[in-house]
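TL;DR need C-alpha cells for one chain.
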Amino acid sequence: MQDKRLTFNSRFQIENKTISEQEKTFIIAEAGVNHNGDISLAKEMIDVASESGADAVKFQAFRTEELILKNTEKAPYQRVTTDRCESQYDMLKRLEVKKEQALELRDYCRRRHIIFLSTPFEKTSLDELDELGVSAFKIAATDLTNIHFLRQAAEKGKPIILSAGMCYLEEVMRALEAIHPINKNIVLLQCTANYPIQDTEANINVIKTFRDTFDVMVGYSDHSQGVGASPYAVAVGAKVIEKHFTLNKNMEGPDHKASVTPDEFRQLVLEIRRVEKYLGNGIKMPSCSEQMTRKSLQKCLVASQRIKAGEAFNNDNIVAKRTNGIGISALYFDDIVGQIATRNYKTDDIIDLN
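>> reply
TL;DR here they are.
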C-alpha cells in the first residue's frame, strides 16, 4: 500500500442533509427488495421510514439480464429464505423496479419529506437513476471490486456511499484510488455481507481501521439482528448508518428475516440519537449543570492557621477546602506557596493576594 493517504472531502451535501463529523448521523432505511415487487408495498415502507425519523429510504435498481447469468446460484442465505426451486435470476426478475416505478417512488418520497436513494447494480440502472435526479449513489459491496463501474458512478459527480463487505483492505484501497481522481465526496461503510450476521462478525472496529488508513467519511451497513450494532458503530465514528427493514419478517423474500420491523427501526433511530447525545462535542469543559456543582464541591485555598502580614504562605499554613467557589482554586497551590501575605489571616479565612 502507498504511504500517502488519499484525502476525500470532510463535508458535503446529500440533498438538504450535511454529511460531516459535526452533523448528526445520516440514517438510511434500507428497503432494498423487501417491497417484493409491489409498489404499493414500497410506498408503505416509505411511510414507515419517514415516520421513524430516518433521513433517507433506499431501494435497489437493476436490470436482471445485465446483472447476472441465468445459471448463477443463489447465495447461501437466499437458499434458506426463498424457494430453492427458483433460480436467482428468476427471483431478481420478480423484484425489479422499473424506471417509471422508481420515478413514482422518488416523487412519493418528496411528498413524505424523506430522501429517495437507490443502489444501481449496472450501467443502465446507474444512468436511469442519474436521470431521475437521485442525490447520491449507494454502491453495494458486490461492486466494490468492479473498478470500471466505480469510475462510471464517480463520473456522475454525486456523492458515493460505498459498502466494503466481502473484501480485503487492499481491495478497498484500490477502489478508493479509482474514485479519488474523479469524485471526492464519498462515505466508506464497513459491512459484513451476510443476512443476518452473528454478533462476532459485526467487526465495527474496522471503522477505526478505515479512519486510521484513509482520510474519508466512514459509516456502517448493519446486517446484525434487531437494533444490533448500529448505535455502537456510531460510538466509534460512523457518520452514516444503513439498516434493512421490512413490514413483516414472515413475508416471502430473500431479506425479510434479516431485516428489522418498523418498531425495531424506530428504536434504532432513537438509540442512535441517544448515543449522539452521549458523545457530545468532544470539548472538555464543565457542562451547564456542572457549573453550580463545581461551585459547591471544588476547593479553594484557606488559612489552616493564623498567618501574619509579611509571612510567606507555605505547605503548612494553607489548605484546600470547599468555599462556595470563593477564592483561589486549589489548582494554584504551587503558585501561592512562597508568596507573602499582605494582611493578617485567621484560621479558615479565604486566601487572596490583594
